Amino acid sequence: MKRIYLDHAATTPIHPSVKDVMRDAMEESFGNPSSIHHFGRESRKRLDEARTTMAKSINGNYESIIFTSGGTEANNLAIFGAAYANQHKGNHIITTQIEHHAVLHPCEQLEKEGFDVTYLPVNENGLVDIMDVKKALRKDTILTTIMFVNNETGMKQPIQMIGNMMRSRGIIFHTDAVQAFGIESIDVNEMKIDLLTVSSHKIYGPKGVGFLYKRDEIELAQRLFGGEQERTWRSGTENTLAIEGFKKAVEVLQDERDKRNEHYQSLTNRLIHSLDEKSIDYHVNGDLSPEVHVPNIINLSFPGMDVEIFLTNLDLSGIAVSSGSACTAGAIDPSHVLRAMYGEDSPRLRNSIRFSFGKDNTEEEMEQVAERIQLIVNRLASKN
Ligand SMILES: Cc1ncc(COP(=O)(O)O)c(C=O)c1O
After folding, report:
1. Measuring CA to CA, how many Å separate 120 from each of 4, 63, 95, 117, 335?
2. 193, 226, 251: which is the final residue of a domain?
3. Which of 326, 327, 375, 381 is catalytic?
């Protein structure tokens, strides 16, 4: 049985060119970038080059990139850092109900510490209404954190409009762009983004590395204390090996992004077409229009299915997908994203699957996926 991996929003394999670069880097360069001797200087040079690549990829300055251990740490630094540094100006934060836990949990923690957080609702397509954002603004609002692309549904929020609104009011705007970076072209200046989170392992780079873009003018409270690395925003010897791999992943992405996006769209179309051809009963969670949706993630509800049984059967048939929601102690929690879209009682919370495509998936695989789904649905339906 040929296994089919359709969980690239969870993580991607490492790109062969990234592997090569990391293997070479491991052999050629081990110095500590803070050391002043030859070995240190060699590592420093490589680190500087990677920083330049990251900065250019979002049209930011060289100085604006803070390397972190990934998306979670970058989100934590942005949210706690901005909240603590600006609490003398106010204690109100705006976010949405559909953020990743790496944003929601920091916000919940800040609430416990006395900050006031507004969790904006979304409509049935998982989109925030810009008028709701406007209505939520207060004199004491210091930070707005709204994700670029949702990891469960692939829906894109109106980032540019939110950026304009926040900049005109002097409110810090952070966006978690972990799922957007591989797909969308991002310009932090044009989009008026102050803080932006990126993670390497969603774009064929290694795990455990990412960055936070911080616009020069933005004050952040220091979270880690130690050495002077990353201009003190993130003390600790840099993960030079992973950063080299991340750099290569970004370079390859820049060459291939358009081609990959076209490919993802054809995979989405083929999967939908094959499901329709087989008259499989499903609903799209969200809206597949390209203006509001990325081509590599689709979330589908299969009426009558139970997500846990369905996922297990899909795995047994060689298909790796996910429910998009957290798995706690082996049990799947109903998705907070689908809850925000459809309400607590919607059956979609218990019968939805996220498919996320990668550059090496093929249209033939999409047909096989539809075939295997048909078998499973028929088998499970006959047991009910
Ligand atoms: C939207 C979003 N934000 C943050 C993260 C966390 O990133 P990392 O795994 O690099 O900590 C993820 C990863 O699943 C994500 O999808």
Report:
1. 36, 32, 6, 9, 16
2. 251
3. 327
